[in-house]
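Recap slide: ABC transporter substrate-binding protein, sequence and predicted structure.
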Amino acid sequence: MKTMTRALLAAGLIAGAQLAHAAGGTLIYCSEASPEGFDNAQYTGGNSFDASGHPLYNRLVEFEQGSTKLQPGLAESWTVSPDGKVYTFKLRKGVKFHTTENFKPTRDFNADDVVLSFDRMVNKNNAFRKAYPVEFPYASDTGLDANIVSVEKVDPTTVRFTLKEPDADLLAKIAMPFASVLSAEYVGQLMAAGKAGDINQKPVGTGPFVLKRYQKDAQIRYAANKDYWKKGAVKVDNLVYAITTDPSVRYQKMKAGECQIMSYPKPTDLAGMKADPKLKMMTSQGFNIGYLSYNVEKPQLKNPAVRKALDMAINRKAIIDAVYQGQGIEASNPIPPTLWSYNKSLKNPAFDPVKAKAALAKAGYPNGFEITLWAMPVQRPYNPNAKLMAEMIQADWAKIGVKAKIQSYEWGEYLKRMKNGEHDTGLIGWTGDYASPDNFLGVLLTCEAVGGSNYARYCSKEFDQLVLAARKSTNLAERTKLYAKAQEVFKRDMPWSTIAHSTVNQPMRKEVNGFKISPFGDYTFQNVSVK
């Protein structure tokens, strides 16, 4: 039955692709994984944001497509108080929520929707949060849940945010998919029916596309939102995500015209893609970091000396040559070198297995130990081949007596288990969501991010003081010094082995027009058309 279903789905996608080529009405994107769900607030994974936040929802403030520049979204304008603690947003009028088989709105978007969407994340007594109790890791990782005092409705088209402390990155933070605005009317309907959890599988937003069908590990189908408030921004009638975990299969589908654009090509396929007259390639410097996270709560890994020995035993050059194949540079810091406050003085120790083994013995492990090494099941720009990278690290560590057992899980399960701290060490990475060091240092390494995106479970008072002081400051020079010092503390404590920053390559068929590479690694199909 599964084989028949897959065959029928494949046939449907091929027919859809042929129709798209003829009429230009359908865009098919070969994506790499199923989303964790469609309720953006409870996730941090990029594939979930790509499948939900961008096609289905909008935010008060949004990033200009292909840029780090902020622009008005559901808020037409905003003002900030002199002390930086009060933000007042004037909301856009006439914005309509999706009509679906489960919901027909009776009113336009208004302040009630904004209050519901944010209060749910920051107020533990929010009724929707109690009806559907989930975690909100990004609200926590960015410090919003601790810093937002209130989100209030001033009138139907005005909302006021009050903060405990200034936050220079607030607007950029709420431009991310986790801050997507829900329909309070729809939430009320779900709660009345005792089905609050349906928000995660039957989403209703204001975005450019409406969800029509989802089959896990197979496809997601969307239709154009004919009432979308950005007139002319939806240029295809249908959007299909053909979920295809193998990058080689994604490539073959794109070559055959079964999809017009694909995610995350293998470095070994790039030359063939560039030579194919039916394809075109876009390239940009990656705003990312691929790294090995040490779970500092595990007995063998509590000691920074052990982590430094393991780090010294990793042959980064060999990994970058084999895994990235010319599409990556060695990473020394937890932030990319294009980001302001990057500390150029910090370098990785030289690869030296002999010194690493001696350092491990000095730290109390002359005979090494056994450990788990988790490898991501999906390909990402920051790690195009986690299986190979894990095998190379496994071989490196074996030379100093450390026996690493490689483990992996389905992507959603992998992230969930890592957030729970089940791993000893794990390969992971990050593509920035906004152009601030806080999006790396704050979101990935502070105490408040433990249980969220801080997979190392690293909690340093010294590091936190620096990062949180920088977050509250509105003085760029002061923030730069604080973040540079925080990078020094990171390097001293070594909760990660930083591996590489990669180049982003985006192949597509030549009939695709209007697509822009996002500096944040997002896939957005507004303003994209196919011939």
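The mean pLDDT is 94.
The first helix runs from residue 2 to 23.
(End of recap.)
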